[in-house]
UniProtKB/TrEMBL annotation:
InterPro entries per the UniProt record, alphabetical: Ribosomal_uS8, Ribosomal_uS8_sf
Protein name in UniProt: Ribosomal protein S8
GO cellular component entries: ribonucleoprotein complex; ribosome
Domain of life the protein comes from: Eukaryota
Species annotation: Medicago truncatula
Family indicated by similarity: Belongs to the universal ribosomal protein uS8 family.
TM segment ranges: none
SUPFAM superfamilies: Ribosomal protein S8
MF terms in GO: structural constituent of ribosome
Upper lineage: Eukaryota, Viridiplantae, Streptophyta, Embryophyta, Tracheophyta
Keywords for this protein: Ribonucleoprotein, Ribosomal protein
Biological processes, Gene Ontology terms: translation
Length: 112
């Protein structure tokens, strides 16, 4: 069975935040993780991140900001139409004012 590298990366960031660390190193990496970190940086959850050697095994160093309470990856595939994304977001998040849903598609990563 393959590794769930996005879930491993998210757990590493949450655990580092709980321990009060300022930085965390993520290995292995993928383009999905990099795209997800762009969204997290845009939303203000992380300060910055740096990708080292992306064409090999590589690593990403993330500067944490102390704003991540919890972050999870749903590992099962769900087929959603574009018109159903908002209803899915409302059903997935615990409240309407807390959190974001990030969806990976064949065209890239989408954050709502």
């Amino acid at each position: 069975m393959g590794r769930r590298i996005l879930n491993d990366a998210l757990r590493s960031m949450v655990n580092a935040e709980k321990r009060g660390k300022a930085m965390v190193e993520l290995k292995p990496i993928s383009n999905v993780i990099s795209s997800f970190l762009h969204i997290m940086k845009h939303r203000g959850y992380i300060k910055d991140f740096q990708v080292y050697d992306p064409h090999r095994v590589g690593r990403i160093t993330v500067e944490l900001q102390g704003r991540i309470n919890d972050c999870k990856a749903l590992t099962y595939r769900q087929d959603l139409k574009a018109k159903d994304i908002e209803a899915y977001r409302l059903n997935t998040l615990p409240t309407h004012q807390w959190g974001y849903v990030v969806i990976t598609t064949p065209d890239g990563v989408f954050g709502s």
